[in-house]
Amino acid sequence: MTPRPPFPPAFESFVALFNRGAYWESHEVLEDAWRATGSDFYQGLILLASAFVHAERHNAHGVRAQLAKAEMRLRTFRPSHLGMDVDVVLDACAAARAALERDTWPDAPRLELRPALARGDEPEWRAPLEPPSAGA
C-alpha cells in the first residue's frame, strides 16, 4: 500500500500558491476539494485567499468582509487543524484588520504546514483525489 502524503494534495497546492501571492489561484485550487468535502476549514481558507484578492484590488470593504467570514469559519478549528496552526492564521487576520484601521494595506500571512499538528483523521482526508468527471 502506498503511504499517504503528508497532506491532501489540493491543500498543499493551496498553501504553496497562497505563499507565492497567487491568491486567486490558491482559491481556485481548493474549490473542488471544498465542494467534495463540505469542509468549513477549506471554506475559511478560500475566504482568507479571497480577502487578499480584495487587498490586491485595494478594496478595503471586501478585505474586511472576507476576513470576517474567514475568521468565523476557522475559529472552530482552533488551535490547529490538518497541520496548520489556526491560532496563527487567526492572529494574522486580526493583524490585517488592524492594518486597515490604520489606513495601511495588510500583508498576507505566510501559511505553514506542520505534520506534527495533523491528526491524520481530519474529514478532509476523505475527499476524492480527483474531481468527479463531467458525466458523473
Tell me about this structure.
This protein has 136 residues and is mainly α. The chain has one domain: Orthogonal Bundle (Hyaluronidase domain-like). 54% of the residues lie in helices and 3% in strands. The chain has helices spanning 9-19, 23-37, 40-56, 60-74, 86-101; strands at residues 80-81, 84-85. A two-stranded antiparallel ribbon has the order 1-2. A hairpin with a 2-residue loop joins strand 1 (80-81) and strand 2 (84-85). The longest helix has 17 residues, at 40-56. It starts with 8 loop residues before the first helix and ends in a 35-residue tail after the last helix.
Quick rundown:
This protein is mostly helical and 136 residues long. Helices cover 54% and strands 3% of the residues. It has one domain: TTHA0068-like (Hyaluronidase domain-like, Orthogonal Bundle), CATH 1.10.3450.
Task: Give the low-pLDDT segments.
Answer: 129-136
Shape: globular
CATH class membership: Mainly Alpha
The assembly state of the depicted protein chains is single chain
What CATH architecture do you see? Answer: Orthogonal Bundle
- Major β-sheet profile: 2 strands, antiparallel
Helix content percent band: 40-55%
Count of DSSP helices? 5
Strand neighbour order, sheet with most strands: 1-2
Beta-strand portion reads: under 5%
Give the distance, in angstroms, between the N- and C-terminal Cα atoms.
27 Å
- Average of pLDDT: 89
What's the helix and strand layout?
Layout: H1 9-19, H2 23-37, H3 40-56, H4 60-74, E1 80-81, E2 84-85, H5 86-101
Antiparallel strand pairs: 1-2
Helix pairs in contact: 1-2, 2-3, 3-4, 4-5
